[in-house]
Write a structure and sequence with these properties.
Order of helices and strands of chain B: EEEEEEEEEEE
Helix content of chain A: under 10%
Radius of gyration of chain B: 14 Å
Structural class of chain B: mainly beta
Strand content of chain B: over 45%
Number of helices of chain A: 0
Number of strands of chain B: 11
Radius of gyration of chain A: 13 Å
Shape of chain B: globular
Largest interface: A-B, 23 and 27 residues
Distance between the termini of chain A: 36 Å
Oligomer: heterodimer
Strand content of chain A: over 45%
Largest sheet of chain A: 6 strands, mixed
């Protein structure tokens, strides 16, 4: 099964609201990354958080990592219609080398 | 910097034909490239890892004779879907990984825009 699972699977919010999505994984990890994918397009790297980090910020994005719970969250503050996309977490861990394993993704719809 | 392209961006072919998809790193040398497949409304599933000058490593359940991967240079990897069938219709995405100053971190992969394959 996939290393990462995400919830919710879909999220619909109004512009200006915050969007929070969660990712859980099963094994010890080196890094956890979040990506955005617009419909039918490639992936855009958002943020990477290492296993020894607990929180990172990048603009309107805030990522947390709880290795004891094997989970991460991505918060998008003050959402915009342009944030409408699917968001995926991806992990890599020692035994898998450089390979990434993706979570199931959260489809976010930001309504204007 | 760190741009990855794919060609074609979409392709429609008849069942039984073969289709080649190219993945190029435009401004860096990629020692490793990865090929993913993504079905509609699903996540990316790694198909294989491609290292320049060596045979690709396929994930469990991926037929190496059906999905031929060639990584002949540090900037180009190709995926050939042989004898394509409708169930091979999918979105194929490659990523490229480089070392040194190009990568922000050891594990950063730069993703291509994807190729939509439709097999009739």
């Amino acid at each position: 099964s996939q290393q990462g699972e995400e919830d919710p699977q879909a999220l619909s919010i109004q512009e200006g609201e915050n969007a929070t999505m969660n990712c859980s994984y099963k094994t010890s990890i080196n890094n956890l990354q979040w990506y955005r994918q617009n419909s039918g397009r490639g992936l855009v790297h958002l943020i990477l958080i290492r296993s020894n980090e607990r929180e990172k910020h990048s603009g309107r994005l805030r990522v947390t990592l709880d290795t004891s719970k094997k989970s991460s969250s991505l918060l998008i503050t003050a959402s915009r219609a342009a944030d409408t996309a699917s968001y995926f977490c991806a992990t890599d861990w020692e035994a898998a080398g450089n390979k990434l394993t993706f979570g199931g993704g959260t489809r976010v719809l930001v309504k204007p | 910097g760190a741009v990855v392209s794919q060609h074609p961006s979409w392709v429609i072919c008849k069942s039984g034909t073969s289709v080649k998809i190219e993945c190029r790193s435009l401004d860096f040398q990629a020692t490793t490239m990865f090929w993913y497949r993504q079905f509609p409304k699903q996540s990316l599933m790694l198909m294989a890892t491609s290292n320049e000058g060596s045979k690709a490593t396929y994930e469990q359940g991926v037929e190496k004779d059906k999905f031929l991967i060639n990584h002949a240079s540090l900037t180009l990897s190709t995926l050939t879907v042989t004898s394509a069938h409708p169930e091979d219709s999918s979105f194929y995405i490659c990523s490229a990984q480089a070392g040194g100053a190009v990568s922000l971190s050891y594990n950063e992969q730069f993703f291509g825009p994807g190729t939509r394959l439709t097999v009739l």
